[in-house]
Each structure stands twice: as C-alpha cells, then as structure tokens.
Amino acid sequence: MAARGTTAAGAVRSAARVIAPLLLALLAACSDAPGETSADLPPASPLLYEIASADGTVEGWMFGTIHALPSGAKWRTPEVGRSIDAADFLVVEIAALGDDAALGQTYAALSTSPALPPITARVPPELTGQLSGLLARGGYSQDSFATTETWAAALALARIDATGDPANGVDRALIADFKGRPVREFEGAAAQLGIFDTLPEAQQRAMLAAVVHDSETARRDPARLQRAWMAGDAATIAASTREGILADPALHEALLAARNRRWAAMLVPMLKQSPRPLVAVGTAHLVGPEGLAALLEAQGYRIRRLSPPEAAPATPAP
User: Fold this and answer.
1) Three-class secondary structure of residue 39 per DSSP
2) CA neighbours within 13 Å on the CB side: how many for 278?
3) What pTM did the predictor assign?
4) In 112-241, which residue ranges form alpha helices assigned H by DSSP?
5) Residue 128: exposed, middle, or buried by beta-carbon count in 10 A (0-12, 13-18, 19+)?
6) Beta strand segments in the chain, E
7) What's the Cα-to-Cα distance from 220 to each of 139, 176, 214, 234, rounded to whole Å?
8) What pLDDT does residue 35 have?
9) Please, what's the b/e burial string for 239-256 (b: 16 or more CB within 10 A of its CB; e: otherwise)?
10) Would you call 96 helix, strand, or coil by DSSP?
11) CA neighbours closer than 13 Å in the CB half-sphere of residue 315
12) Rounded to the nearest 5°, which phi and psi values hold at 138?
C-alpha cells in the first residue's frame, strides 16, 4: 500500500469518516473488513428506551446508535420502526452528517498545526514499535502526521484495524428517515471536534497512546462492539466506556461523562414540550451510571427498554 499524504484535500476527503460521534467512531473504518459481513452479526435487538414522565405519559424515546456497520446489516426492529414513526422530531449529535464538504472544512481547520513533533515522539518509547506497525498497516509513513494534531492522528489510527462502513451508520439512516421533520443536534461538528481540539496535549497523547496500545486487541476482534450493539448487550457496551481511551479518567470525563450531563440538561426542556423526540446518540452514551438513561431517571423520568421487553435494566453496573 502506498504511503498516505496529509494534504488539506486528503483531510477533506476523509473527514466524513472521521467525524462521527465520539466513542464508537473510534471503531469506524472506511470499508468492510474482510470476513466481517452482516451475516456475522446476531439478530437485531439494539438498545431502545421509552421515556415517560412520573405519571406514565410517554414523552419520547432514546435509541443507541452505531456509526459504522457492514453492508446489509438489518437493525430495524418493529419497535425501532414504531418509535421513528411516532416521534415528532429527531435529536442527534451532529445533524449535517451528509454535508461532506462542510465537515471536511471544519476538520481541516481544527486538526492541523505547523511544525509538530514527529508522531513517534508523541508516544512513550515502549510503544514506538507498535506504532510503526500500525502506521505500516494503514499505509502511512513516519512523517504522514507532521502537521496533524495528536487527537486527529489518534482518530485516524484508530480506524486502521476497525470494521464497518460509516456510510451504513445508523445516524445517517435516521436523519434520512426524518426528512420533512425537524432534526436538532446536541453539538454539531465544530463543537464536537472542538472537544478534542481543546484537550491539553498531555491528554491528546494519552489518547494516542491508548489507541496504539490497544491496536492489537482491536485487530483480533474488530467487530466486538458491533455485535454487542446489534444484540443490545448493555453490559458489554457499558464496560467499553472504561476501556481504551476512556480508561483515562480525564478523557472519560471530557469525552463521555461531561457531555452526557450537558445533553441531559438540554434534553429535559425538550421533553417538557408537547412534540416528542427520538434521541439517537452513540449507544455508549445511554448506559451505565453516567449514561443518559440514569441521568433522566435521576430527574424523575421512567426509562423502560422496549426491545426486548425481558432485557436488563436501563442502567446496568459498568
């Protein structure tokens, strides 16, 4: 494979695949990995929750999405279809996922800086060998990230051994489903990438180190979280929020916990209005004691999983 450059045009072309909501975006590759097909996934039962007020009135729904799937993956259960039909508007992390040019410009503006240290100097010495192997598998040279900020390099490298295609992402499909109905966003591309961009360099390097350190594990089973997502395995998904880059306390707070709190504060006023939303965000944002389900329950809402009815509680221990 030829070594890849890091021109602005290249950044624009790849931005739509890099800019996907944060946690599961780190598992999203450019195309289906050999041997990973929709037939390898379990029957569909993704996490879908009904949100009701204290008196039982249904105020909306929450659906945990994934941002890359193999072609032909069938995730639309009857319960998901009914929630799509019943909702008055959609709430996602980024509404303009189809505007590749704008996404690319935003990414290029935030992800580049001149005269950065070599990428090999941005990881601990004991990881340089593993980093070199990861670069080679991705078709990158040692100087490919000479002007790429550390957080953006980490995102790019995380995609090398991953599986699935962002073109099959559930977020994109839902936005298309809601054509003619309002689509609101919690963050937008600039704000979401800005979370990475404003991380201190030490945290960006911790993120890069975690990606490199975990690359061999991800390579052995790149579709692990795709299977967990399709099966609605809340326990495995909750456990993933303490792995990889999210095992670092500062990164966990910045990339997951703090964002969940901001979103919950935005969501409560929406739920108090008459139109009912379908909230569709990365599924890791819904589960565990810091997830949206638990945060809404703390506000007095009743959260009930719709698929399957016999599933575990909405907020399993991580």
Assistant:
1) helix
2) 26
3) 0.85
4) 128-138, 150-158, 170-177, 189-197, 201-213, 215-220, 224-231, 234-240
5) middle
6) 48-52, 58-65, 89-92, 183-185, 277-282, 302-305
7) 19, 34, 10, 22
8) 44
9) bbbeebbbebeebbebbb
10) coil
11) 12
12) -85, -5
Under the phi-then-psi rule, with left for phi > 0, alpha for psi from -120 to 50, and beta for the rest, what region is 140?
A: beta
Q: Name beta bridge partners: 96.
A: none
**DSSP β-bridge partners for residue 61:** 50, 278
Q: Are 108 and 12 in contact (CB under 8 A)?
A: yes
Report the Cα–Cα distance between both ends of the chain, in Å, rounded: 40
Quick one: pLDDT at residue 18? 38
Q: What is the pLDDT along the chain (318 residues), one digit of tens a residue?
A: 444 444 333 333 333 333 444 444 443 333 334 445 665 788 999 999 999 999 999 999 999 999 888 888 899 999 999 999 999 999 999 998 877 788 888 888 899 999 899 999 999 999 999 999 999 999 999 899 999 999 999 988 988 877 777 788 899 999 999 999 999 999 998 999 999 999 999 999 999 999 999 888 777 777 888 899 999 999 999 999 998 889 999 999 999 999 999 999 999 999 999 899 999 999 999 999 999 999 999 999 999 999 654 444 454 444
- The amino acid that residue 82 corresponds to is R
3-state DSSP: the chain helix, strand, coil percent, rounded to 5? 50, 10, 40
Q: Is the dihedral of CA 213, 217, 220, 221 positive or negative?
A: negative
Amino acid identity of 296?
L
> Phi, psi at residue 110, to the nearest 5°?
-90, -25
pLDDT of residue 307: 67
Output the pLDDT for position 76: 94
The Cα 207–Cα 193 span in angstroms is 14
3-state class (DSSP) for residue 209: helix
